[in-house]
Amino acid sequence: MHRSTLLWIAASLACSAWIPGNAHTIRPAVATAVISDSGVIDLQIRVNAEVILAGIGPEFTDTNESPEAAVYDRLRLLEPEALAQDVKLFSPRLVEPSPLLADGVPVSLQFLRTDVPPVGDIELSRDSVIYLTGQLPEGSQALVWSWPADFGSSVIRFSRTYSETPQSQWLQPGESSALFQLGNGESAPSRFDVALNYGVIGFEHILPKGLDHILFVVGLFLFSIRLKPLLLQVTAFTLAHTITLGLSIYGVISLPANIVEPLIALSIAYVGIENCLSSRLRTSRLVLVFCFGLLHGMGFAGVLTEIGLPRSEFLTALVTFNIGVEFGQLAVITLCLLLVGWCRTKSWYRSVIVIPASLLIALTGLYWTFERLTG
Question: Could you give the angle at which helices 227-249 and 211-222 cross, rounded to 10 degrees?
Answer without folding.
Answer: 150
